Amino acid sequence: MALQYADEFIDRLHLIWGAGFLSPGGAQEVGAIVQGLDLEGARVLDIGCGTGGPAVVLARDKGARMTCIDVEPQLIARGHRLAADAGVADRIAFRLVEPGPLPFEAAAFDAVFSKDALIHIPDKKALYQEILRVLRPGGVFAASDWLSGAGAAEDPAFRRYVELGHLTFTMATAEETAAIMREAGFEAVTTVDRNAWYAEVSAREAAAIAGPLRAQILEVSDLATYERWRDGRKALAEATTHGSLRPTHLRGTRPS
Ligand SMILES: C[S@@+](CC[C@H](N)C(=O)[O-])C[C@H]1O[C@@H](n2cnc3c(N)ncnc32)[C@H](O)[C@@H]1O
């Protein structure tokens, strides 16, 4: 299967989001996702860890003991390097997995974390059943995901973003996601809409790609790739302003 996060694409994303991050907001946004949770010494699973930035934040700043999974080997290799450079390699285990059921025993984790990765997993019902299964009773799921607004499929900006991109994804709305989580057995389900925040951030990102970052991006990408990405990111910023793209924080607890 072709890689979705080839090295060249990783380098581009790191230019806009910082080393180790394939999603926006950096350490601050990771902190917001887990706000109020005591993760000191907790066994935390990170689903779709990418190049490891969020896991390093959780291990370094929150004292979590991380198990990080992803489906592409080059991401895992980068994660290992980032964790070693950050001095937290002893607190982060990376594992390459196949898409599908989580390869862990029931109740193996105190918390399950994910940042902007669940969008890539099409069977949401099976996904949330699996997350619930690997959480211990009383354990917490805390994540962010790229959710859609109602009517996104009809938004020309959203359609253009999809047309110009190469990633495979399946989006749901916040209402659909909360319903699937409750059906799976989660309690205390909450969603926090981050659309207003990301409307501002994505507009700044699109402007930076079109202007100050252009030369740096062209050091890692060819011109055609750059131009397609610049246009796609502009469409993404517009879709966010329209409310079609709604980054959202998700929480839920496995009943005790
Ligand atoms: C947008 S990136 C986010 C990476 C990281 N969480 C971050 O915030 O920097 C999405 C990640 O999900 C991973 N992914 C896709 N399908 C997956 C699956 N079925 N299981 C686990 N990870 C998956 C991708 O390889 C990619 O690393």
Question: Quick summary of this structure?
Answer:
The protein has helices at residues 7-17, 26-33, 53-62, 73-85, 124-134, 156-164, 174-184, 195-210, 214-220, 223-242, and strands spanning 43-47, 65-70, 92-96, 109-115, 135-148, 187-193, 245-253.
Structure notes:
- This protein has 256 residues and is α/β, with parallel strands linked by helices.
- The protein has one domain: Vaccinia Virus protein VP39 (Rossmann fold).
- Helix content is 45%, strand content 21%.
- Strands 3-2-1-4-5-7-6 form a 7-stranded mixed sheet, sandwiched between helices.
- Strand 4, helix 5 and strand 5 form a beta-alpha-beta unit.
- The termini are far apart.
- The mean pLDDT is 97.
- The structure holds S-adenosylmethionine.
- S-adenosylmethionine binds next to helix 3 and strand 2.
How far apart are the first and last residues' alpha carbons, in Å? Answer: 40 Å
Count of discrete alpha- or pi-helical segments spanning 4 or more residues: 10
Count the E strands: 7
Unreliable sequence segments: none
| Overall CATH class | Alpha Beta
| Count of all domains | 1
Main traits of this protein?
10 helices; 256 residues; alpha/beta; 45% helix; Rossmann fold; single chain; binds S-adenosylmethionine
